[in-house]
Structure formats: C-alpha cells, structure tokens
Write a structure and sequence with these properties.
Largest sheet: 2 strands, antiparallel
Number of domains: 1
Structural class: mainly alpha
Strand content: under 5%
Distance between the termini: 15 Å
Strand order of the largest sheet: 1-2
Shape: globular
Order of helices and strands: HEEHHHHHHHHHHHHHHHHHHH
Number of strands: 2
Oligomer: single chain
Length: 426
C-alpha cells in the first residue's frame, strides 16, 4: 500500500491523522488512575489527582488537529466528486459507511456485555460508569459526521468567502459564549458543537487551498496561544481542554472558544512543521508505518477505552495487582511505562479481529437521493451521543438502554455499513 501511493498525495495529512489519534489514545490511558484503597477499587482521574497535569491537555487534546485534517481531506474528496459529476448522496453514503462500520461491533459487544453483566448481578451504576468510559470516544464521530453532512454548504462558503468563512463561524462561537457566560443563557452553549468544530474544519479547507502558507502559520500558532492564555487567565474558562470531574465548566462538553483558540494554535504549529516532516515521510519506512496505523486507526481509537476498562476490571479481580501505587507519585508515573505497554499489547489482537470492519464491502449500491443517508446519519449520531454521555446501562428487563443501542445500529445498517463476509475477506 505504501509503494502504491500516488506522488501527488499529501502524506503529511495522513501522518497527522494517525498521530492525532495515537495521542488521544495515550492521553486516555494516562488519565485513568485506578487505585486500591482498603480492598476497594477507586477509579481516580489524573486531572483531578494532580491539577498540574491539566496543562498537558494543551498537547493531549489533539482532536482539533483531526478536524483540520478532516477539512483538508473532505475538500479533496468533495472536489473530485463534483469534477466527475458525482452526487452528494453517493459521496455522503461512502463517507458514512467508512465511519459507521467500525462502530457496529463495539456496540454489539457492549450490548452483549451489558446484558450478561445485568443477569450476572453487576450493579447498574458500575455498568453505567464502565460502559460510559469505554464508549465516550464515540462522541467525536457524532460531531464529525454532522460536520460532514454540511460539507456542500461549508465548502461553498469557503469558495465564496475564503478565510472570512472561518472568521464568521469563529465569531459565531464567540457570540455564543458571550451570551452563555455573560448573559446567563447557558443552554446556548450546545450550539458551539457546530460553530467550534465547523470553524476548525474550515481551516482544513484553507490548508488544502494553499491559503495558510508563509507568515500565516506562525501567526496562527502565536495568535492562538495568546488568545488561549488570555481566555483561561481572565475568562471563565478552565485550564484543562477536557472535562475534569467536579469542575462546573468544561471546555469540551460543550466546546468553548478556548478550545477553538487551542485549535487555531495547533493548526499553526503543525503547519509550521509540514515541510520537514513531508521530507521525512518520503522515507519508505516512515511512510509504511503511517499507512499501517491509518489502515487500523478507527479500530485503535474505538477499542482502546474498552481494553482499558477490561484491563482495570481484570486487575481488580486479581486483588488489585499493580494498583497499589498512589496515583500522582513519582513511582506511579514510572509505572505508566509498563501500563501503556500492557494496554498496547492487549489492544493489538483487536486489530486482527476487528480491523476488517474499517473496510466495508465493495459494490455498495448508491442511494437514489440523500434522504436515506441523511436519516441514517441522524439516527446514528443521536444514538452514540446518548451512549457517550451516559453509558449503556439502563432500566428494563435486559439492564441496558436498548433504544439507545438500536438507533446507531439501525442507522449503520441503513447506510450499508455492515460488512459482508465477502467484504471482510476482500
């Protein structure tokens, strides 16, 4: 696959996609701080245990970079679709199948595990917390799919307005936060799921069009950094770019202009490194490693938290083996080396077993119009948003929220995301 890469392909975009997801995985594995106290397991959060680690989220909250890369890639694929006379319905259906298919086995696994746990006497709260930790990574898919639905509109805005299209959406995000925090209209904050992530996505369009060259790159990096520093110093926004247990305000749930400033800073920084890293990626070994990671990137992202939850559960069952070190101490930080290595080893089998779901079956019949893919996307996004917010456990005879599981499964099936045997083997 690496040797067959077209010469015109921007390898750096693929590298950023792989690197950003791997950084997210590492961050999640480091934030978990399970500890055995008096024979009972406590699932601590490092951002709560050691407040200084909240500054690390400026580097570990890397999802803005993923959305920049998404804008870059979506611009290319949408341009090609239009040039070849393709329809929005076909383009959208293809994108949805690739994003939804890897999620379906994760949902089936947790539904089966939840039912088994319910009949095995596991407490509803334990199931809720464990499944929520495992499924919280799916939140980004709900947001990213909604951004994809709007690509024809946002790309047209880019073509007509250029960088002003980014500025307008960014100003919208600022206005929402000003009304929410200054005017007490806190319910408006949820609108910023659209404004903040769409703004970062517009930067990807600008990168693809060559409008973020030269001085603009360091200007974005320094300007984003200064804006972020001012917002967390003098504004109501916390330092952490992800949610911290007990904190009233989160910069990510829902997103704030502070997270947008982080995205601007990250865009500038990664683009400043583009030239040397593109030269490095001409190396066959470096590029082959990038291709390998990207071929399994959704599997790694979706299953890394499940592996974490199951690993912690196993250690608790083994009388807390390895969980006796106080989180936040020097010894605990040194112990993160074997911790991360063990989790990586446990995650590896999932690539062989589940990586096939990243390659939906070929020969999918294009939809006649956009209504079906739009309906499937909305069902899917609603379901996984609910599960990411509060887990799979619920009332009822099966002990799970069956309706919340059914929504994304039905959405995925309507989109043709379920792999056939032929697609899995081929």
């Amino acid at each position: 696959m690496a040797d067959q890469t077209p010469a015109a392909r921007n390898r750096y975009a693929d590298f950023l996609r792989a690197a950003s997801i791997l950084v997210v995985v590492l961050g999640h594995w480091l934030m978990a701080a399970p500890f055995m106290r008096d024979g009972r397991a406590e699932l601590s959060h490092m951002l709560d245990v050691s407040p200084w680690t909240r500054w690390l989220t400026w580097a570990l909250q890397i999802m803005p970079t993923f959305f920049v890369v998404g804008g870059f890639s979506n611009a290319i694929s949408w341009q090609k679709t239009r040039e070849h006379g393709g329809a929005y319905a076909d383009w959208l259906s293809s994108r949805l199948r690739r994003l939804m298919a890897p999620v379906l086995p994760l949902l089936v696994f947790w539904a089966a595990l939840g039912i088994a746990a319910h009949f095995g006497g596991v407490g509803a709260e334990m199931l809720r917390v464990g499944s929520q930790v495992a499924l919280v990574p799916t939140w980004f898919l709900a947001v990213y799919i909604l951004v994809i639905l709007l690509v024809p509109l946002t790309y047209r805005a880019w073509q007509r307005l250029g960088l002003a299209s980014f500025a307008l959406v960014a100003l919208g995000a600022g206005a929402v936060d000003a009304l929410a925090f200054g005017g007490g209209l806190t319910a408006l904050r949820w609108i910023n799921y659209a404004f903040v992530w769409a703004a970062v996505h517009q930067l990807g369009y600008a990168w693809q069009a060559g409008r973020l060259g030269g001085w603009r790159r360091p200007a974005l990096a320094s300007g984003g950094f200064m804006a972020l520093l001012l917002l967390v110093t003098y504004g109501p926004f916390p330092v952490s770019m992800v949610g911290v247990p007990g904190e009233e305000i989160s910069n990510s749930l829902p997103p704030t202009v502070a997270l947008l400033a982080l995205g601007i800073m990250q865009a500038g920084l990664v683009l400043c490194l583009e030239a040397p890293l593109r030269r490095w990626l001409q190396s066959r070994r470096a590029w082959a490693a990038t291709v390998l990671v990207n071929a399994n990137i959704m599997t790694v992202y979706l299953w890394h938290s499940t592996v974490l939850v199951l690993f912690i559960g196993l250690l608790v069952k083994l009388d807390g083996a390895g969980l006796g070190i106080m989180p936040g101490t020097a010894a605990w930080w040194w112990s993160r080396i074997p911790w991360v290595l063990a989790l990586a080893v446990l995650l590896f089998p999932s690539l062989a077993l589940l990586g096939r779901f990243e390659r939906p079956p070929p020969g999918h019949r294009p939809p006649a119009n956009a209504r079906l893919p739009l309906a499937s996307a909305l069902l899917f996004c609603l379901g996984i948003a609910v599960l990411a917010l509060d887990g799979i456990g619920g009332e009822g005879p099966l002990g799970i929220r069956s309706w919340a599981v059914a929504l994304p499964l039905v959405g995925g099936l309507l989109a043709g995301a379920a792999p056939s045997r032929r697609g899995a083997d081929g």
